[in-house]
User: Fold this.
Amino acid sequence: MTDLSGIVKAYDIRGVVGDQLHASLVRDFGAAFALLIKPDSPSVVIGHDMRDSSPELSSAFAEGVTSQGLDVISIGLASTDELYYASGSLNMPGAMFTASHNPAKYNGIKLCRSGASPVGQDSGLAEIRDTVEQGVPEFAGQHGTVSERDVLGEYADYLRNLVDLSGSRPLKVVVDAGNGMGGHTVPEVFGMNSAAVGAATPIEIVPMYFELDGNFPNHEANPLDPANLVDVQAKVREVGADLGLAFDGDADRCFVVDEKGDPVSPSAITALVAVRELAKEPGGAVIHNLITSKSVPEIVAEHGGKPVRTRVGHSFIKEKMAETGAIFGGEHSAHYYFRDFWRADTGMLAALHVLAALGEQDRPLSQLTAEYQRYSASGELNSTVDDQVARQMAVKDAFAARSGVTIDELDGLTVDLGDGRWFNLRPSNTEPLLRLNAEAPTDDAVRALADEVLAIVRA
Assistant:
């Protein structure tokens, strides 16, 4: 029995290619996935990113699926949200080969059921792991077939039909694809290769690092790290752009910088998109995880919506969206989920909303988003600790006795001091880390709060 706990994560399968992840193992994962979804679907759709190992691994997975009698539709090179589009529009389970923002030596598999419904530890991933560890049973029947289908144009049309940019004022937009899949999807969505589409979309794209290269020669495709935003910030200032967009490796997340080159927080983008979605459906529910700014539920409520708080993680967001019928959901990590996109996350659709909001009025983006950024945030501050539970309990004990303080443990430890200051302290699932996110009314107040908590964590 092989122990796969090191690569079967909470939401996906991910590991070092050749060491932890290789073709024969991936074939077994494909067969195990086929066994899981066989009662519900006769076919699986598969896509892959631009990493050197992705074509071989996705083919091995397809062999595993067809070995159990199911058919495969391969969409080839794709962003993760393009794979979700295929799963939703074709109403079949899907597998996406990507390690997102991880370095080149990694690869992985994101799985979903029909309609882009997520497969995580509690919704099939643990079962897949058990099947592979114990040995996948052979199927005596006829093997399935593999066919190819290009859905990129359909995906782009679908997104443009959700957000109409034809009435926008002209905008200059720097896009840093980080040599990831944004270099594949952005040209199609914005009509860079089509005069007809381009004429209907008054957006000038200034491309950066659109060449697909899984070795990431320019910088890591991880815009969550401020170091990887430096290039797009400089280019925005250099060319006088209205804004900049930076996508991660599999292009399911999008980060925004304003015309000054300053980052716009994902919480502000969540609030902005929520307001636009609520204008279409007044009174709708909007999901936000517990690390997003308090401005998000405040603004949702002010616009007649119903803010719903959840744990961090796409499976929790999507589950709560299904339960509440929510129209939209956002996370602090720049994952944005849309009911109109099968409750799946798509950074591209969020980017289109930002462009539409900017293009329909005359203010620069910094002024437009200022109303959505009400508080100062620390960003994620990580501490390496020997005992996550003990250090978290020490922080809890230090704050529990204070008057006016409320504490909950929905996801890690959340402490609200009742005066606009709050923080969340969560253990990493994969590393000996505690992750701190704090917010307060001013920069000085959030620094002081973060320092106070970190002094306890790192004592």
Observations:
- The two ends are 41 Å apart (CA to CA).
